Amino acid sequence: MLLFQSAPNGIEAGCDEAGRGCLSGPVVAAAVILPVGFYHSKLNDSKQVNKGNRNELRLYIEENALAWAVASCSQEEIDEINILNASILAMHRALEKLTHTFDSIAVDGNRFKPFGSIPHKTEIKGDARFLHIAASSILAKTHRDELMEKLHLEYPMYGWNTNAGYPTISHRQAIREFGITPYHRKSFQLLPKQWELDL
Fold first, then answer.
1. Half-sphere exposure of residue 68, counting CA atoms within 13 Å on the CB side?
2. Which pLDDT score is estimated for 198?
3. How many CB atoms lie within 10 A of CB 57?
4. Nearest CA to 4 among 140, 137, 133?
5. Out of 3.30.420.10, 1.20.1640.10, 3.10.50.30, 3.40.50.880, which CATH number does the structure's domain 12-153 have?
6. Which residue ranges of the chain lie beneath pLDDT 50?
7. Which of 82, 149, 156, 173 sits in a 20 to 30 Å window from 162, CA-based?
8. Which helix (H) or strand (E) holds 73?
9. How, if at all, do strands 104-108 and 120-123 pair?
């Protein structure tokens, strides 16, 4: 059961990202501050929630959070600074956009860099244990999926409206057949080594 995680002496922001393992598109992060007593029966780690419920949760979170923000790092930035640093930078950008002050930060996973002088903690599988991190997971996932659906209109052969840029068999087959787009992450292994690709 998800628990609301609040700082002992103040307000805590939850953070998570989406798209870290994708072959194309940005990595998107969200930061959320929830009010005491926030509850929704369907809220969970975004990977455990179907698309319809994720979209329902997105609206509920955006309407009821004390503050929320979404930010990203582009595929070019990912190639330049690597996906871990880009994920953390996207979370920092989301935190910078929050319109409510906060005293601490809780981040999904086990890696983060200090955000100014504000204390932070990392929570492995935090998106399945804490409400504010789960809410961030939902916002990051839904905002990124929405973006990938728009990019799909430019390059429909890659199926980003369904795979969101993740390394599915059909996505990799399309890369093999059509090559890469400006949205692909060139620093990633886009195809298995036994497949040939002319870049």
1. 25
2. 52
3. 23
4. 133
5. 3.30.420.10
6. 1, 199
7. 82
8. strand 67-73
9. parallel
